[in-house]
Every structure is written in structure tokens, then in C-alpha cells.
Amino acid sequence: MGSAPSLGERDYVREGATQTAVKILVVGHFAVGKTTLIGSISEIEPLSTEETMTQAAEPVDDLKGVQGKTTTTVAMDFGRLTISDRVVLYLFGTPGQQRFVQMWEDMARGALGALVLVDPERLADSFPVIDLIEHYGLDYAIAVNHFDGTPLRDERALREALDLLDDTPVVTCDARDEKSSAAALTTLVRYLLDRTR
């Protein structure tokens, strides 16, 4: 069996360009669309640790509002997105269930920021997620994943409900749509750049 071809730096970076790798977390509560967002936007085949949900999870995974969900992330999702000659995003999606929170510390290490996906019909489920991101000292943007058949929410009401700082970006997105997911990530990256200037 032959060995796989090795990839050199020029396979990833245009000649003469210096590229910076940026680690971004994609976080949110259970069944909010993290795996879907990374899958919609990753330029590589995303790594996904989706597993079929079993009866053993029924007592701990609240499927209210997400009937029909049959799989769940049990470790992480990973994708990559080059946004310019100079910047490539490495996207790490965290599992949403409380029992996997212990993995967040390692995943947060070295991350520049986080995109927090929110379901407007289950805002209270986002409080523990935002608390964790703030605990790890990460800057973040909120991406309201607009689901089919749900009304658009007023941004001021969302900000108040989530107790956000005035400068925290809030965007509406459809995690299934590549352009919409890209726009949400672009909002986060611009915010992070502004914070480092």
C-alpha cells in the first residue's frame, strides 16, 4: 500500500502570502444547528462525530421543539474556511448537551472567539452556553438560527432577553445556507478584528 502524498505549505497558501490560522468555536445548546452550519460552509469534508440517538439519551436530552432529531454530536465537529489570502478559520463545533461540558475547556484553549448559535424559540437554553463562553473569556457574536415557520424576532428584545452588551453583534442566519453561514462568521471575524485594534 503506497503512502499518501504529502502536502506542503504551498498547497494551502498562495505563493508569497502569509497565512494566519484562527481557531473559532461554534457553540450553542442541544439541537441548535452547529453541525449543520459547519457542514454548510466547510471547504473540506467536515469531521463530524454525529451518532444515532438511543433510548438511553431520552431521560437527559430534551427533544421538545426538535422532534425528528435522530443524531447528536458526541465529541466535536471540525471544518475549515479560508476567508482571504491571509486568514483561514478552523471551526470547532462543541457538543450541546450539559454532560459534554467538560470538553469545552480544551476546545476553548487557543480560540480567538466564538459564534453562539441561538434558537429564538428556546432562548433560555442559551444562557448556560453564554455563561461558559464568558467564563473562558472569549469574545463572541450571536447568530440567531432562523428555523422554518418561526417569526423573526426583534433584535432589541433578543438583546434584552440574552442580557448582551451593546457591542455584541447579533445576526440572523440559516445554518443550512452557505452564504448565510459565511455572513454570520464574517460578522464575528470583523468584531474580533475590531477588538484587537
Quick summary:
Belongs to the GPN-loop GTPase family. By secondary structure, the protein is of the alpha/beta class.
- Overall mean pLDDT stands at 80
Helix % is 10-25%
Segments where pLDDT lies below 50 for 5+ residues? 1-13
Q: H/E element string?
A: EHEEEHEHEHEH
The main sheet comes to: 7 strands, mixed
Shape designation: globular
Q: How many helices does DSSP assign?
A: 5
First and last CA, distance:
51 Å
- Calculate Rg over CA atoms: 17 Å
Question: What's the arrangement of strands in the largest beta sheet?
Answer: 2-3-4-1-5-6-7
Q: Which structural category fits the helices and strands?
A: alpha/beta
Strand content: 25-35%
The count of strands amounts to 7
Supply the key terms.
197 residues; alpha/beta; disordered N terminus; globular; seven-stranded mixed beta sheet
Can you tell me about this structure?
The protein is an alpha/beta fold and 197 residues long. It is built from five helices and seven strands. It has helices at residues 34-41, 104-108, 127-135, 155-162, 178-196; strands at 20-28, 47-52, 71-82, 87-93, 113-118, 139-145, 170-173. The protein has a seven-stranded mixed sheet, with helices on both faces. A hairpin with a 4-residue loop joins strand 3 (71-82) and strand 4 (87-93). Helix 1 (34-41) packs across helix 5. Mean pLDDT is 80; it is low at 1-13.
Describe the protein's topology:
Layout: E1 20-28, H1 34-41, E2 47-52, E3 71-82, E4 87-93, H2 104-108, E5 113-118, H3 127-135, E6 139-145, H4 155-162, E7 170-173, H5 178-196
Parallel strand pairs: 1-4, 1-5, 5-6, 6-7
Antiparallel strand pairs: 2-3, 3-4
